Each structure stands twice: as C-alpha cells, then as structure tokens.
Amino acid sequence: MELGLRETKKLQTQREIWETAIRMFVERGFDDVSVAEIAAAVQVSRKTVFNYFATKEDIVLSPMDAHVEDSARVVRERAPGEPAVVALRRDYLDRLARRDASVGINDAPHTLAVMRLILTTPALTTRAYVFHERARELLTRELAAQSGRDDVTARVAAAQITSTRAALTGENLRRLLAGEPSDAVYPDAVADAERAFDLLEHGLGDYCGHAGGHAGGAA
C-alpha cells in the first residue's frame, strides 16, 4: 500500500532523527549527547523526538524492534507439520546468505559503528537485553500455542533457541568488529549454524512438528 504524504513525511523525520543521533553518538559518545542537542541538530523540538522514540536508548535500538518477532513469526508461518527448529534453521541460514544485520554478518561501516556503540555503552547493552527477552517471550507464546504442550516446555525450548541464535550472532559480530570482512566470516558462520541447529534438533527433536500441534490442526 502506497504511503500518503503525511506518513512519508513522518518516516523521513524519524529517519533523520535516527541518522543524526547515531552520527552524534558515534562521534561524541552516547552519554555525552543530549536529546535536546539531537533535536536542535534536526531542527525539531525535544517533544517531537520523543513522539518518535520513547527513550534516548530507543533512538539507537529502534531497528531491533523490527526483528523482535522474527522467530515467533517463522514458527507461526512455517509449513504444517514442519518442526519449529527446521523452520528456524532455514530462516537463520537465509539471513546469513543475505548478510542480514540481525544475524551479525553485515559489515557495512554504519552498521558496525552502531553495533560497537551498543556493545560499549552499558545503558544500550542493558536495553538490548530487554529486546532479547521480548523475543524469547514472543517465541515462548507461539510455541506453547502451536505445540499444545505445557508452558514450561515452551519456555525451555524458546530459551534454547534464542540463546543459540544469540551465541551464533555474537560470534559473527565479534569477528566483524575485529576487522574480518563478512565474506570471510560467512563460510564459518554457516558451518557454526548448521552444527548448532543440529544440537537443537537432537535435543528438541520434532517438537512442535506434529500436524495436530500446528495452529489450526487441532480438532
């Protein structure tokens, strides 16, 4: 659906605030830049900045919000009868192939600058953990809804899956931040992901894979 002029203008303003803030944070440090200074640089009011971003931390981390539901959505939209881990493995490998920043393998300078900023700023690291926990909780709910099993099983499965993704992504990002290009990291990233998801499949088996456990499959 084509956006109207008003919506397009809002997106442009939000993007300008984000890009300006990131540039200032990278140059001077997150703690040494105020929201008022960002607003002045973009020529909007401080209130306008907070209309788009609830907190100063959210200015940096807002792109992560678009990925919070990724794993839950993959499980929800997978083929009937397909085990959740199989669908999640395929999605992760596809993201690696596309050099998606959400799996830590995008070596664009701007992306790396943002990730370095997050990892070196305690307030941002703490806030990023909140996003991780939200993703885990959304996946837990989806697994519980579709498997028909008790909530504890869904929580254990979701914790294993999200922790595996985080470990893989963290290793990819560590190597990129150390100066390795994404094309050099990619083969190892694929091998690591295959090995990690093999471990998940061995532990979780065909969990959430029976036709009767898929949403809409129960009588």
UniProtKB/TrEMBL annotation:
Q: Which UniProt keywords apply?
A: DNA-binding, Transcription, Transcription regulation
DNA-binding region coordinates = 34-53
Q: What one GO molecular function would you report for this record?
A: DNA-binding transcription factor activity
**Does this entry carry the keyword DNA-binding?**
yes
**Is Cell inner membrane one of the keywords?**
no
Give every HTH tetR-type domain span.
11-71
Q: What is this protein called?
A: TetR family transcriptional regulator
